[in-house]
Amino acid sequence: MSKVNSFSTADSRWINWFKLSSPSAFYPVAGKLIPIFWALTAISGIAGLWVSFFVAPIDAVQGQGYRIIFVHVPASWMSMLIYLMMAAWAGLGLIFNTRLSAMMAQALAPVGAWMAFLSLWTGAFWGKPMWGTWWVWDARLTSELILLFLYLGFIALQASIDNPRRADKAGAILALVGVVNVPIIYFSVKWWNTLHQGASVSLNKAPAMAQTMVWGMLLMTLCFWMYSIAVSLMRVRTLILEREAHTDWVRQLNEVNH
Description:
This protein is mainly α. It has helices at 2-19, 23-55, 69-96, 99-131, 139-160, 164-178, 181-191, 211-243, 248-257.
């Protein structure tokens, strides 16, 4: 009897999670989560900026100018992570033809593009005093620029196709093909002779920086992560209302709001 009950409980939990794949069920849940992620963004951001700019010591070689890494590195990490998540959602939508998966991919694209742009922009400001130039055709910089173009191409491709289903399929194919660029960005400093320095934080070895610097980096990464989730949830809610405008539940929601 206990085994039967455990199986039934597991099945019910699976069904509850599966219900969230419906736009109508996910919409109110996302609305409740958004304030939480904005609060986490603010808390981790304030703590991260304080540690990064007021607690972390001055770098012996790069001086105060190194502090831009506390924005540059998290933005770079998030630009790659968001692309992988976008491609995964797009792939799920392509395989299972699920509406919410395609909307999640579409919602993530502008956030990822912003992170890629921020990575390149802060990298240029870091590169000028360190390398003496704003830009070089370095392997990592070039592959990061390609990542930005992939994001913009995904957004433009979907916007150029009127039929949402066809737009989702075309965007999914582009996103999945572009995944090959992510490991190129990550391993570029190991595969090629490049100006860009290697990783300062690695899972395989001790950090090559002071502990307070590591904490500043991790807190800022958490801030960027929470920000990305909050903005993506806001965007996906807007997309749900646009795409589900013909459904009864959206009409009822509009009536209640007006």
